[in-house]
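Side project, low priority. Logging it here so it doesn't get lost.
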Amino acid sequence: MKIVFVLTQSLDSPSGLGRYGPLARELVKLGHQVEIIALHYAWHQLQEKQYIDAGVYINYVGQMHVRKEGPRKIYFSPIRLIWVSLLAIIRLALAIARSNAELIHLGKPQPFNVLAVKISRKGRKVYCDCDDYEAETNKFSNGWQRQIVQYFEDNIIYNVSGLTVNTKFTQQRYIQLGYPEKQIRYVPNGIERSRFISPPTVKYLRKQWSINSDAPIIIYVGTLGLLSHPVDLLLKAFQKVIQHLPKARLMLVGGGEDYDTLQKLAEYLDITDKTIFTGRIHPNKVPGYLALATISVDPVYDDLIAQARSPLKILESLAMGTPVITSDVGDRRMLLANGTCGVLVNAGDAQALANGLIELLQNEKARKGMINAALAFHKIWYWDRLVTEFSKIYY
């Protein structure tokens, strides 16, 4: 088949890394012709807007709804956003119209790509992948923006031949909205095998960040945006951890709109000398950082945002044999093999998170058991296995 994915973000975003990029490459291996039409957070600065990656034709056609500069995410003003949105819709629509794809698969039901497909579908079948609860996870400067996103997200069921989802929560949400269960395919996020086969440079990273060889390392890899990722819980928990384990270090790997806010919080908590903000790193370096870590953390509240998310940081941690501490929200218990690959603590509770970290850091035997479980269990999340289930939506 000839398939085009229409994305409102770049392929180095969490969804691009944990879903659309590897999925497209695996579909090519199955014999399909795959194209990705996408927006980018720094489109005007891209030197190469069109290229082929492992047989997938990538075509960046316009600017995303946000910009990213270094470790920071920058939002447009409402008026500027309207202009950026109109240009994005037009450019997406023109690219879709020129595509020879037989079917169209939307990556996230957002106004940009939904409207573009409505303009240029030319009678082709349309599918949609729902990997988040967009109306909850996005930051809006005005209530009307949220209402628009919610409208497109809820009403996508009237415009597509099938839905793919990455959490049980999202599957049930669309069933409750009236979409036929048989037309929904549940496939969680996954791991791209090729990104995790190179030996990690752990010793180099310890030297680079001046971390002693006997210092346990707690790591968070992901977006530094408090609306969707309560990293402040982790900072507050870490303050309690170092009272018991002063050699411990915390690494925050990533960037986002609250990068500066979290740095100020670390200063306020007086943990700056033991906390490392790496900023954004190249995706190929993530395995090395996870291998460096003693424990990986996915801090969450028990809310709609967390229930609708399939955290890539958990799966990638398991691929490197790094135990994970998170909470029993959404699909997380299942991702951790019912807790055999990590620890589940009370959601939204900094003290419970701190207790879990202290107990696991002090229990080497438990950590080794979780490491072995993770290395054995994570293989089911490789995209070369998940792609078969995902592609069933087309038949």
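Brief comment: The first strand starts at residue 2 and ends at 7.
Revisit when time allows.
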